[in-house]
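Hey, can you fold this one?
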Amino acid sequence: MLRAFGLSIVGIFHPKMLWLTIRPFLVISVLWGMLFFFMWEPALESIRIFITTSFLTAWLSDVMSATGWDEIRAVMAPLLLVIFLIPFITISLLAFVAFTSVPAVVRYLIKQPNYAQLYEAHGGSLLGSVGYAFLSIFICLGIVFLTFPIWWIPPMVSVIPPLIWGWLTMRLMTYDVLARHASEDERVALMEAHRWQLLAMGIISGLFGAVPTFFWATSAIAFVFFPVVSFMALWIYSLVFIFSALWFGHYLLDALKVYRATNGVSIHVN
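Sure. Predicted structure:
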């Protein structure tokens, strides 16, 4: 795992990998920028009305007063909107990276001598990737909504998201990295044998991605200027996700090579 981590640090500075951090950022920024242009002010107005009529926000206000976060009460409306949008922005970027960038990362890795002899078993497919991603995202959103009230208790907003994104990162990256080269049985076997290492890698990746989340959670300025700040944070997320793809790629392709050698699987070169 540490070896794969070191190789990924070196690999992220390759021009192709740096471009892969920019491409998802540009696409998702444009899409969310258009949404912000049309919905930001109307959404804030709706939340302000909700704040004045809901008992829930009165409870949240009391919690913030008890925990010493009185200054956040002044920006309650943008705070609620930001907390609501963060999961959707993050998941949309992660899904886009999984569908479009992870295959490019794998193609980059497979050209390296360590993995050049791995034959393609084609245990996954685009349709399978889409279905697996939608199921994983559906579960992830369910966890987000179930844990949402706890996010308001400091410092849970900087603890829970990395765990959620870590689990989702593990699920999406593992499938897409192995989709082309591993059979379905090999993918299941590798996920079972390395589940704790993969989960740890996902959580660590989630912690790296928590940097912009922590900034949003601790800065009133970030809430007020969220449409601008979010674009900066999106690139950080994109960088983390491409690094994660490299990390999972190095680790899983090497694990696949070892698995085949251990189980006496013959090697074919396409």
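The CA atoms of residues 209 and 236 lie 7 Å apart. Let me know if you want another pass with a different chain boundary.
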